[in-house]
Amino acid sequence: MIVDAHHHLWDPSRREYPWMPPALAAPFTTDDLRRETALAGVDRTVLVQTVSSAAETAEFCAVAAASDGLIAGVVGWVDHTRDVPAQLEGLAHAEFLRGVRHQVEDEPDPDWLRRPDVVAAVRSAHGLVVDLLVRFDQLPAVAALLDAVPDGSFVLDHGAKPPVGTDGYAAWRAGTTELARRENVVCKLSGLFTLDHQELLAPAVDHLFTVFGPDRLVFGTDWPVSTLALDYPAVVARTRSLLDGLSEDERSAVLAGNAVRTYRL
């Protein structure tokens, strides 16, 4: 079994996506996802938020409910400065909501996750995974948040986007090493193939394997963003090639088991 624990859907004719480059400005639907997953041998997926919109979260839960089991869970957006359960009252198909996320990487303050209102909101999200989309300079604040909410469940999206080939790489390496010492976080092997300096990516991936280990790594395609570099089956195939040195049980954990456990699929 393969679980794609990180992908998106969108329709630019219905909603604005401020971050979206023109090359991605086309609809990507459940039908498109079904075709791509069938080609790549992916069994289940986790649909992840794209904008700061409670309406999108509700739509994604409805999309999951209508997907005939393909989309097994949703990571939706909530305001990370307010009580989370209050924001989710009355959410239809809430059983598909497995996690919440805010695009923290867009916050200028590297210590945004240390804010008392943010910590309180994250603490209130008990029972939901908190996906962390962060920059490398925000990793110390991530560690502080995990310490402040030790019974929470956290996922580091895209390995914190290792800034290979830049002056920030040493700080990223130190930050992920320190973060991995916390047992309440797993790391997604996702969104890596669209990073700059692909020729330098292998050592960064090896580092993530070393510090998190195969029992705390989760596979995701980051489709359709990934189409900037590779098509869906190629992302799956290239990720599988990264796992060649693992045992069969370890590969199964990264490709499916860890996602099933983390997101309670």
From TrEMBL:
Domain Amidohydrolase-related: 3-265
InterPro entries on file: Amidohydro-rel (IPR006680), Metal_Hydrolase (IPR032466), Metallo-dep_Lactonases (IPR052350)
Residues annotated as signal peptide: none
Family label: Belongs to the metallo-dependent hydrolases superfamily.
UniProt xrefs under PANTHER family: AMIDOHYDROLASE (PTHR43569), AMIDOHYDROLASE-RELATED DOMAIN-CONTAINING PROTEIN (PTHR43569:SF2)
Protein name, per record: Amidohydrolase family protein
